[in-house]
Amino acid sequence: MITIGFRPKAGESPRPRRMHPQINLFLKMCEHLFEFMQEQDGRDVEVFFARDSGSISLYLMTKAEAYNFDLSRKLSEFAAPYIDRGLIDSATLLPASSHEELEAFFDPKRALRIEIQHA
Amino acid sequence: MPSSAEHRVKYQANRQLLDTGNNGTPLSTLDGCWAAIVAFYAALHLVDRVAARINLHPTPPGAHAARLRFVSSQHRAIFADYNDLKVASEIARYGTLNQFNRAFPGTTVQDILVNQKLVAIENYVNLIFNPPAPPAAATGS
């Protein structure tokens, strides 16, 4: 299961928005991401979609402090087709980071955190 | 816009700094963070060199994203290597020093980022600009 949590900004009034034509592709990517994370034992990785000035970037953060080159190659293989199609701008593997360290890369308060629940 | 040849010159300058930036020894022996950053920019100029060949010139804003799209769509073979160098340089620039040193301990910068990732991109680009000569046609007896 994939859970996407939205945190509205304070004072933001809800308003109907037109469905983006790429939303189906985005949801497909989320399904693919779910399968990818299952293959990588997703319990050791946190997943975020960061939004900045209209672009979307995918971040995976491991619990290990050392950069995982094996996982980063798999992430690149996963993400390249979606970057090619313009669905996301980048895919980044981050080693274990504190909240403050994470803020140097994206705004965690505005990011979508993808929660993958294991049976 | 810089030409393909001009990107080659910039790449060579970055490469020389990587190789000799610490009094003739590799820059990584002096500062791993800076070596990771320079390794990425060396790779960036190799990518821009290839892009300029077909009159593509990624420019800000969005130049890094445009390069990633270019590599992912047309040069997938080096995408993972290029992305690793990009991410390492971002951890070097935006992360803390401790975070970078934990992520890329010891000689990881030289052994993997430079000697494997950057070298893979160099070899790939070199084949584009210097393709192997076709096998000589068999001569009849």
Quickly name the level 1 CATH class of chain B: Mainly Alpha
The helix count of chain A comes to 3
Nearest-angstrom radius of gyration of chain B?
Answer: 17 Å
How is the biggest beta sheet of chain A arranged?
Answer: 5 strands, mixed
Instruction: Give the beta-strand count of chain B.
Output: 0
Strand content of chain A: 15-25%
Q: State the low-pLDDT regions of chain B, or none.
A: none
Rough shape of chain B? globular
- Determine the structural class of chain A based on helices, strands and strand pairing: alpha+beta
Rounded to the nearest angstrom, the radius of gyration of chain A is 15 Å
Instruction: Report the strand count of chain A.
Output: 5
Computed structural class of chain B: mainly alpha
Series of H and E elements of chain A = EHEEHEHE
Unreliable stretches of chain A (pLDDT < 50, length at least 5) are none
Per DSSP, the total helix count of chain B is 6
Q: What's the pLDDT, averaged over the residues of chain A?
A: 84
Biggest pleated-sheet summary of chain B: none
CATH architecture assignment of chain B:
Up-down Bundle
**Helix/strand order of chain B:** HHHHHH
How would you describe the overall organization of this protein?
The complex is a heterodimer of chains A (119) and B (141). Chain A is 32% helix and 24% strand. With 119 residues, chain A is α+β, with helices and mostly antiparallel strands. Chain A has a domain at 45-119. Chain A has a five-stranded mixed beta sheet, covered by helices on one side. In chain A, 29% of the residues are buried. Chain B has 141 residues and is mainly α. The chains are: A alpha+beta (119), B mainly alpha (141).
